[in-house]
Prior knowledge:
Elements: H1 5-34, H2 37-43, E1 50-57, H3 63-72, E2 80-86, E3 99-101, H4 112-126, E4 130-137, E5 141-142, H5 144-147, E6 156-157, E7 175-176, E8 182-185, H6 186-192, H7 196-201, H8 208-219, H9 230-233, E9 234-236, E10 256-258, H10 263-290, E11 315-318, E12 322-324, E13 333-335, H11 338-355, H12 359-362, E14 364-379, E15 383-396, E16 403-416, H13 425-434, E17 445-451, H14 455-469, E18 475-482, H15 487-499, E19 503-510, H16 516-525, E20 532-535, E21 540-542, H17 544-552, E22 559-561, E23 564-568, H18 576-580, E24 592-594, E25 602-605, H19 606-612, H20 625-636, E26 640-642, E27 645-651, H21 664-676, H22 681-689
Parallel strand pairs: 1-2, 1-4, 2-3, 9-10, 17-18, 17-20, 18-19, 22-26, 23-27
Antiparallel strand pairs: 4-8, 5-10, 6-7, 11-12, 11-14, 12-13, 14-15, 15-16, 20-25, 21-27, 23-24
Helix pairs in contact: 4-8, 14-15
Amino acid sequence: MPVSRPILLTLLGAILGLSLTYCISSVARLQKHSQSSDCTDLIKPLRGTGFILMGIMTAAKYVDTRAYNVWKTWAKHVPGKVLFFVAENTESVHPELPLVRLKGVDDTYPPQKKSFAMVKWMAENYLDEFDWFLRADDDLYVRGDELEKAYAIGQAGLGNSAEYGLLALGSTDNYCMGGPGVVMSRETLRLLSPHLKSCLEHLLTSHEDVELGRCIRRHVGVACTWNYEMQKLFHNNQTAAKAYTSDLSEVRTAITVHPIKDPAVMRRVHIHDRALRLQALRARFVSLRTERSDAQQPTLIRIIPNSSRDLTPWDYINNNKILFCADRVNCPRHTVDLSIRTEIGDIVTQLFEEFNSNARQRGRVLQFQSLQYGYMRVEPRYGVDYVLDMILWFKKFRPPHRTTLSVRRHAYVQQVFAPLQAISDRKMRSNLRRSSNFTDENSHLHMILPLKGRAEVFSRFAGHLKNICARAGDISLVVVLYESEDETTNRATIEELRQSFVRVEVIEMDKAPFSRGVALMKGAERVPNNGLMFFTDVDMLFTCDALHRVRLNTILNAQVYFPIVFSEFSPESWSENDRLLADAFHYGRRRGYFRHFGYGLAALYKADLVAVGGFDTKIEGWGLEDVDLFEKVVKHGRLRIIRSPEPGLVHIYHPIHCPESMPQAQRQMCHGSKAASLASIDALVDQISHYT
């Protein structure tokens, strides 16, 4: 039935009237509420232009070390501003360091007054210019890129085992641990600022972070989150004596890392963080490149060989410990290099991050258990291929099908090389030498030789030295001589060297028990502080080129050289052709091998030896003193180590004796060296073939 025109107009008028009435009343309500202070605070436009202000609390004795190291590393990469808060009269030798000198504050410890004054200063000067505020110590590392993603304020603490229950905390109370950093919002700081003076006057403990947390809880009404994940995000490692000096796996998931008191460790963590950032950007680049319409689809076969010679052999990794390979140094079997173990660890971490990226939606989580075996190969034009056989835990956590299973899975992984970049070795070496205050590539070389007995071997060493000394530049020999039956013969050989115009200095050790570490330190005492030293053995032969490379590869305050020498096998296992060669500088598979596990020969400057702590003089006899020095150089941080096979250094074979009186660690090393030097793998295969 059609609707009449008057009725339609009446309905439209009613709808229009109701709509206008509703709009007018809504506007009136909004105007009324906009006049209230609560809503005004909520809708007030923010004047802030910065994301976060970081206040770093430091002291006069650390301002030019820890604080400056923070300024030169992670402070350059945070999405905000970094300020360093110090006592009133603190000075720094670095004028660019942004210091805030707090009036009436000294370096008294515990620093409650400094901590509260710092928070008060930030509130009074920057409250409306930043959204977030971080209170931190000078031994903290902050990953700025990750901090920008955070929503929480710190890691909850209750006190250590000795102080648990003695910090005047309620049964459900906590505080944000000051070490890993405390993040506060602008509104938290606004409400807290007027009460800081009162809180400072009513302290219940000597811990400034506990008292700051108590003040926030009392006057702002918020406490540190109990979220378990905060232990990873705001990482605090107080148990390890040498935190972050070796494994850096905690850094990957952390926003802040604490404590880092050594500037060298701070730089190491910073380099690792930048590497993680670069890794993420490269992964993003590869992902975007594969999304292009003209991109090639991923394939496990990146090259099609024309013949078997074009095939790249796979390396087999057994349980992430032993690597079997072909056609390279140290093949066919050797311990998996640290670089490979680290890379596989990073790959596994990335794999399981991707596996578990949507774990909540799927109701299951995968956890890595162990690596059974794996294969890897390097395709020089493309990248690295991996086949990994892993055991993992498969956990379903969604009822009613909760279960935990141990399963095996294969992972096929390809790492793609980045675009080619070229750097001149000459440029890199020049940069290293610019950082050194001693750059003479023709510097005087002090060879230091411990000697006890071995008259015939020393005579061979001396004859070789006389022949090359005229061509090898400025060289002198420091002999640390122990008393022995061959002492008379050795002294006669030394006189022959002197008559041939080789500078020889003798250090008398008389009847002292032989210790290679002690002998080398005694020899180093005779070298000037900027002198270049080469620690050698009497069984070594060397070329003029080798000594030249010793000079090139050793840089004062920058680089230490540990050459990988060629070590002969027992001549009884040599091939017939090897026996016909009178010259020692031949490198057949059956003649010898490059001793990658030896660190006995080393070149460094006297100042660098002193800086790392020198040799351990408590070690008697041979062995371990070289490994100890190598580890000291690694841990020092400032010095770079260069290792490479050196064909100009040949260790002549001699029988090795391992007395039962040797300490266990040295005896074990001695037996390993003895076994490795007996014969090549080829010779052992020939021996086995006689019985098959």
